[in-house]
Amino acid sequence: MFVDISIMNFLQTVQHREIEGKIKTCTIRRDGKQWYATFSVVIKNNVKPVEPIAFIGIDVGLNSIVS
Q1: Using one digit for the tens of pLDDT, what is the confidence trace for 17-57?
Q2: What is the pLDDT of residue 42?
Q3: Do the beta carbons of residue 11 and residue 35 sit within 8 Å?
Q4: Cα 20–26–31 angle (5° rounding)?
Q5: Neighbours of 55 (CB within 10 A)
Q6: How many whole angstroms separate alpha carbon 22 and alpha carbon 39?
Q7: Distance between CA atoms of 27 and 31, rounded to whole angstroms?
Q8: Has residue 11 got a pLDDT over 70?
Q9: Which of 11, 53, 42 is nearest to 28 (CA)?
Q10: Beta pairing partners, 44
Q11: What is the pLDDT of residue 27?
Q12: Cβ–Cβ < 8 Å for 39, 23
């Protein structure tokens, strides 16, 4: 994978995992002699909400009423 940086031309990168979703931001930082690119992405939320099967109520009582 190559990253095109306007002030640095193309940089060859090592990609540790696939980029899923649409890239929104890219942060470039240097740590010693190494350069790192961090991407923020937006992904679709495919999780379906869980419908409760039953409701349970628990009565623990009151020791005093605070008003």
Answers
A1: 888 888 898 888 888 988 888 889 998 887 788 888 888 88
A2: 92
A3: yes
A4: 115
A5: 5
A6: 10
A7: 13
A8: no
A9: 11
A10: none
A11: 86
A12: yes
Two tokens at 43?
């992904």
Amino acid at 17: R
Q: Is the model more confident about 4 or about 41?
A: 41
CA dist list (Å): 3 to 6, 13, 63: 10, 7, 65
Q: Three-state secondary structure along the chain?
A: CEEEECCCEEEECCCCCCCCCEEEEEEEEEECCEEEEEEEEECCCCCCCCCCCCCCCCCCCCCCCCC
Give the integer Cα–Cα distance in Å for 43 and 40: 10
The pLDDT, as a whole number, for residue 8 is 64
pLDDT at position 23: 87
